[in-house]
Design a protein that fits this description.
Layout: E1 37-38, E2 47-51, E3 57-59, H1 63-68, H2 75-80, E4 88-89, E5 91-96, E6 105-111, E7 118-127, E8 130-137, E9 142-147, E10 150-157, E11 169-177, E12 182-196, E13 199-209
Antiparallel strand pairs: 1-4, 2-3, 5-6, 6-7, 7-8, 9-10, 10-11, 11-12, 12-13
Protein name: Lipoprotein CseA
Region (Disordered): 27-56
Biased composition (Low complexity): 41-56
Length: 210
């Protein structure tokens, strides 16, 4: 979705290479690097050598354990958050500075095993030895990334007659930390045509900023 992620310091981007099954939700959201998160709810992993610019060393965390202990994560997401195979969970994780904290922030995207549809996205900010949930969106399909110090959330838009594989459009929403919370800074809406070259597939035809 984003052309460049300048301030993304240490990015562990995980997607799902899972068998068909899961929730049955259809594919959506931006393309991601094909790798798999292997996580168990056993607490943080060893500290990494990478560090944020003028910040503390990056410490990888267990995203599944973080989600399961978070009261702001819905019971539905927790219930469906299971390994696709073995210990491979459908979770993407990014580390970067988006709240001004001396410790890098964590963006977690929860996907579906069947088709890697974004089911929920969350931002965690370090609060002493723990992490606080400072942003969440559980209206699928949704996917968040860090872009030059901002949080950028992509959401597919469906009309009543849309095939789930072909949304009517897409909203790209940019959020910025104001010292206490994320506030919306910009929104770009793209609409798609379902007929291109005689076939039925999405193609962007308009784009507007609100």
């Amino acid at each position: 979705m984003s052309a460049g992620t300048v301030v993304l310091v240490g990015t562990a981007v995980f997607a799902v290479g899972c068998a068909t099954g899961g929730t049955g939700l259809r594919d959506g959201g931006p393309a991601r690097t094909e790798a798999v998160a292997k996580a168990t709810p056993s607490g943080p992993a060893p500290e990494e050598s990478a560090s944020a610019a003028s910040g503390r060393p990056l410490k990888k965390v267990d995203p599944v354990g973080l989600l399961m202990k978070d009261p702001k994560v819905s019971s539905e997401v927790k219930r469906d958050l299971k390994p696709c195979s073995g210990k491979e969970y459908p979770v993407d994780v990014s580390y970067g500075r988006i709240t001004g904290s001396p410790v890098v922030d964590i963006v977690v995207n929860v996907l579906s095993c069947a088709d890697a549809l974004g089911r929920g996205t969350y931002v965690y900010r370090a609060d002493g030895a723990t992490y606080e949930n400072v942003f969440s969106d559980e209206q699928p399909p949704v996917y968040a990334e860090i872009d030059r110090g901002d949080l950028v959330v992509t959401k597919q838009v469906y009309g009543k007659s849309d095939a789930l594989a072909f949304p009517s459009g897409e909203d790209v929403i940019t959020y910025r930390w104001n010292g206490e919370k994320f506030t919306e800074q910009d929104r770009v809406h793209s609409e798609y045509s379902n007929v291109v070259d005689g076939g039925v597939q999405p193609a962007p035809v308009t784009s507007q900023k609100n």
